[in-house]
Amino acid sequence: MKALYEKVTIDEQHSMLVKHIRLNAFGALWHYHPEYELTYIMQSNGKRFVGDHVTNFDAGDLVLIGPNLPHFWRNDDDRLNEPPAEAIVVQFPASLDENMLGSFPESEPVRHLLHRSRYGLCFSAKMVARIANRLTQLPKQEGMNQVLELLSILNELTTDREAMLLASDSYQLTASEAETERMKRVLEFVLKHFREEIRIEQIASVAGMAPAAFCRYFRKRTNKSFVEYLNELRISHARKLLTHADLSVGQVGLECGFNNISHFHRQFKQQTGTTPLRYQATYRDKQAPLLTAMAELSQ
């Protein structure tokens, strides 16, 4: 996918950019920028892309993106009659780590957190429940109070032992490699047709390549085969349907492009470590603390 360079403008009177975004739907393209980015999804759902990692996101999603790591949040095409997409986005320059934190030995845990974020970091529901109110209040603060609060939030995030790295440790897609119209065509086609059967010959034709050459090309740029990537996307969509739609497991499998229910079960357990039914029950248990915290905030 073609990663576009985003110019983040931070004026001379500020050391970071804090935005409260409210849109009909998230419309940012696949992009990168040299600044760190902390994004908290207050309201909305869909799919999140960070490097070579793709998964579903819901309200409460909190991710720290390192410099020049391609990313974007995308609402699903079938999103109808849903409330606006809402998020808090904080962008701050790499110089915060290099020029400021480097002078303080006590900041080592935060610097380590920022170093890990070069692959993208997703934080746990428990952590989000603890700091959700602070994140929503951050755009309302000004001056040094806002800077100190961001540092305090980052310091709190260092204690999250369940924080998950997103992009694979071998991911090395540079900006120049990202500027390929061919990969953009391929991934846009997959996002549109992943519910259907996609043959290697078919997707290779979209890329304008022979099947064998396409397989090598795709693996080189994503560190996985096309079939692996397609199955990850399908299982990601299956996880969303299992927790948001009133469908049977068999119907979810068919809706996600799996014509064989046994194959769907194998792929789901291989990627999640559990069965579709158990995943559904576990997800709801994990969401309970976050839903309670958000309900309290709305009162």
UniProtKB/TrEMBL annotation:
Gene Ontology MF terms in the entry: DNA-binding transcription factor activity; sequence-specific DNA binding
Keywords, in A-Z order: DNA-binding, Transcription, Transcription regulation
Source taxon at top rank: Bacteria
Domain HTH araC/xylS-type span(s) in chain numbering: 184-282
InterPro entries: Cupin_2 (IPR013096), Homeodomain-like_sf (IPR009057), HTH_AraC (IPR018060), HTH_AraC-typ_CS (IPR018062), RmlC-like_jellyroll (IPR014710), RmlC_Cupin_sf (IPR011051)
Any Pfam family the entry gives: Cupin_2
PANTHER family per UniProt: ARAC-FAMILY TRANSCRIPTIONAL REGULATOR, TRANSCRIPTIONAL REGULATOR MTLR
Name assigned to this protein: AraC family transcriptional regulator
Lineage: Bacteria, Pseudomonadati, Bacteroidota, Cytophagia, Cytophagales
